[in-house]
Every structure is written in C-alpha cells, then in structure tokens.
Design brief:
Layout lengths: L11 E8 L4 E7 L6 E7 L3 E3 L5 E3 L2 H11 L7 H16 L5 E3 H15 L1 H11 L5 H20 L6
Parallel strand pairs: 4-6
Antiparallel strand pairs: 1-2, 2-3, 4-5
Length: 159
Amino acid sequence: MHCPFCRHTDSKVVDSRVQEEGTVIRRRRQCPECGRRFGTVETATLSVIKRSGATEPFSRDKVISGARKACQGRPVSDAQLQLLAQQVEESIRSLGQAEVDAHEVGLAILEPLKALDEVAYLRFASVYQAFDNLDDFESAITLLRSERDVEAASPGHQP
C-alpha cells in the first residue's frame, strides 16, 4: 500500500477492525518512511455477470433502483428499500461465490420484495420469472394467497 503522503511503497498495519458483519476490514497503517498514519478499507468483491458477458461490481444502488420501479406508487419508504438491498446482498454473499449472474440477483430480490409489498412483488416477478400471459399472474396470485392463508393459520400469528 502506497503512503498517500510521501508515496513510499510500503506501510505497516497498526490496527485492524472488522465491520459491517465481517464484510469490511478497516486498517490503520503507518508509513515507515514519513511516520504518518492513514486508514484503508478492504471489502470482499462480489461481481455480477451481465447478459452481455461483462462483469461489474455488485451494487446495492442498482438493487434499490430496480425495486423502486416495482414499488412505484406503493407505500414503501427509502429505508425499507435500503433494508431490502442489504438482505439481497447478504443472500447473494451467502452463496459463497465471487461472481453471480445478474438474473440470480433479480431472483434474490423476489422473497424480500414479497414480504415488503405483494403488488410490487408481482410487478417484479412478471419480469424476472418471464410471465407470458394472465395465467402466469393468476398462478402467482393464487400462490401468494395460499402462503398468506398458511401464515394466518399458523400458531402465534397476530393480525
């Protein structure tokens, strides 16, 4: 790591701290040449493979943008979308892969979006599950209703 002050090509790690549930490491470093201290942040990279074959870093902002389109006109806050993006990233990272297909990211949005807003879920699912006709929508709605009925009938459920 180059010193940002004197551009010396080496530095010594003085302290390391894990943050953001183990996905980020902050390091305090000291330059042996000038003696000044500086901080660095290390993150594990997660790349998304697009349809074109190009790869780009995973972006929570892109998840939020896609979910926001599905939530247009729905009672969903920015804070809820931030949480959804965090859940999606955690889900993707739990796969243990450094690269994931863009379609997989879209599919990973479905469950947290379903819990957030059923209408937004149907809008999003119609794209990522390639609904072709009204029967696809009817099947998805029937499945949502049956899941809701099972949840309502479960012990300890509070309306």
